[in-house]
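Contributing new complexes? Match this layout with PRP.
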Amino acid sequence: MTLTLALPKGRIFEEAMPLLARAGIVPEVAPEATRKLLIGTSVPDLRIVVVRASDVPTYVQYGAAELGIAGADILLEHGGAGLYQPVDLGIGRCRLCVAAPAAFDYAGAVRRGARLRVATKYVLAAREFFAAKGVHVDLIKLYGSMELAPLAGLADAIVDLVSSGATLKANGLVEVEQIAPITSRLVVNQAAYKTQRDRLAGLVGAFAAAVAP
Ligand code: PRP
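Output block (do not edit by hand):
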């Protein structure tokens, strides 16, 4: 039976390719050079699908892919139902943070118990974080370019991923709290791991061995 590995488009994809090569998995055509979404690999009966990063856990949860690579940020929002997360791949390293305009007194607003408007793609993670701190927030769901929200007057602060910090800096924002460190994980469909244990355990082992020391 053919196994399917779901890979995320974008940020993580480039870092995933060398890792796949070290795990002995070479795509038949370079995924970035083709419009094909289903790609065979050098491993017999293993194919790759390339999907939106936020869709990877869904493909694996429903068994449309037995394995996938997903950022911890995406997994926080998905909830992880039906998935094992056996390997921290150490790629896509960044952090989920609260950021606000440099001129905004975030700490003071929190101390005063003010109600904050926070824009984010990560609504569940943000809700949980602020609830645990007892901070009152109105969350505004966005799908991208969160950094724009405070500048446009849509929100007081944002919850977003920060890597180099260049995007925050370019938009006059500063990191005010860290919510969680983020890396990408190998995820495996739980039911498939029982029915096709030998092959999947072999692939999990290959990924674990491929993770840079
Ligand atoms: C992420 C994140 C920030 C940026 C941070 O966006 O949302 O905008 O990277 O990186 P930096 O700290 O190195 O500047 P990404 O490029 O993943 O695209 P997205 O907006 O689709 O999430």
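Reviewers usually confirm one structural detail per submission. For this one: The radius of gyration is 19 Å.
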